């Protein structure tokens, strides 16, 4: 096990995609993470000893059958839920001991979420939906405006600022959800089947957005059932019954090697 720095970097230190951790350490480190849900008399072992390290700037895909623990893992990574056992270091800092309000603060400042069902608020406009997480941070309105408009510009939705979610297509709603996730300039972007409710054209557009963000230095962790999309990631892990059963690194290099072999080298 690596030793942990005695003076952990505060999670608030990195506020842009590119800052991340400067010493090459893992941005995320999970050690023997277990999650047990207790309902009536049933115990569900949703995660059973997950070890995972994610360096800053990595694009990681998570795959696996329904019920294997993917969303549970993302919820723990995003500090929406806490593990039953194990250790989670985020940007060098153990997060297990944080209070609920400290967790909320880290989540709000460091983590962007994109869910399968866009989770936009129906009675807020596009602009207000993207602005909301920034308001929670106590950011002043001029700074909020700048960030909201930049994020909407990035996803090609500037022409719809005054629309309500019900007046948008599914693909447009998902693009607004992406804008909302990136407007706060998070350290980590977590996406749970972001293309699940979209047709292939809109799905491809959202994936292209994620690829752009990754090229700009974002760390992205994405659950996807679709191998076409998983291929765009730097690395894929497969979960089965709450464990990591496969970890494919350097897919791009492997592809290059097989291309070389095919070419007779
Ligand atoms: N809040 C909860 N209470 C009780 N059991 C839960 C809870 N959340 C998830 N589970 C159980 O934990 C297991 C893992 O669920 P999870 O949502 O992580 O699966 P998943 O891999 O995301 O599946 P899918 O591909 O269908 O979204 C499942 O057996 C599920 O029933
Ligand atoms: Mg899920």
The CATH H-level superfamily is P-loop containing nucleotide triphosphate hydrolases
**Strand percentage, roughly?**
15-25%
What is the class in the CATH system? Alpha Beta
Give a quick account of the main beta sheet: strands, pairing sense, barrel closure: 6 strands, mixed
Mean model confidence by pLDDT = 84
**Strand/helix succession:** EEEHEEHEHHHEHEHEEH
Give the gist of this structure.
The protein is of the alpha/beta class and 265 residues long. The chain has eight helices and ten strands.
Task: Give your account of this protein's structure.
It is a single chain. By secondary structure, the chain is an alpha/beta fold. It has one domain: P-loop containing nucleotide triphosphate hydrolases (Rossmann fold), CATH 3.40.50.300. Helix content is 34%, strand content 25%. Strands 6-7-8-3-9-10 form a six-stranded mixed β-sheet. Strands 2-1-4-5 form a four-stranded antiparallel β-sheet, with helices on one face. α6 links the parallel β7 and β8. α4 crosses α5. The termini are far apart. The N terminus is likely disordered. It binds adenosine-5'-triphosphate and magnesium ion (MG). The site of magnesium ion has 3 residues, from α1. Adenosine-5'-triphosphate (ATP) binds next to β1, β2 and α1.
